[in-house]
Amino acid sequence: MDEQKCKAIVQYMDVLTKRFWVILTRYESKDFAAFKTSILAKYPHADQGTHYTIHDLEHIVLNTADSDISMEMELLQYYQQFCPIALWLEANSKISVYDHDQYFWQGLLHSAQRAIDQCLEVKEINYM
User: Fold this and answer.
1) Distance (Å, rounded) from C-alpha 128 to C-alpha 123?
2) Secondary structure in 3-state letters for the chain
3) Do residues 108 and 101 touch, judged by C-beta distance below 8 A?
């Protein structure tokens, strides 16, 4: 079972990473736990998980604000980039729910903001 895990995880890596990982001494042992420990030892702070900064979020917001979101697919792409970072920052008390919403809104051009406002005004009687 461990041998299969070792082979499977290497199978999904790009060529350079694959070459590096298979030369690690623990790969030959076919002990997955030891192999994982060996991999993590080569990547400092990897065991701490994903970390984001407000700068990461601002980078996505500013890049999106500079482009004109004119199609639903572009809005969804922005949302997919924005959400993991914003939700991590919110969950780790780096930003508030209000900040989360404000950052998202800032990533939209004023024309897109107006269009969204108009749609909400039509659908929601008590909007604004």
Assistant:
1) 12
2) CHHHHHHHHHHCCCHHHHHHHHCCHHHHHCCHHHHHHHHHHCCCCHHHCCCCCHHHHHHHHHHHHHCCCCCHHHHHHHHHHHHHHHHHHHHCCCCCHHHHHHHHHHCCCHHHHHHHHHHHHHHCCCCC
3) no
Per-residue pLDDT of the chain (128 residues; tens, 9 = 90+): 878 888 888 888 888 988 888 888 678 888 888 888 888 888 877 767 788 999 999 999 999 988 877 788 888 899 999 999 999 999 999 999 999 999 999 998 888 888 888 888 877 666 56
- Tokens 């970072």 sit on residue: 85
How many whole angstroms separate alpha carbon 111 and alpha carbon 84?
Answer: 25
Token pair 């969950």 in the structure block, residue? 91
d(CA 87, CA 69): 22
CA-to-CA dists, residue 107 to 2, 63, 89, angstroms: 46, 8, 17
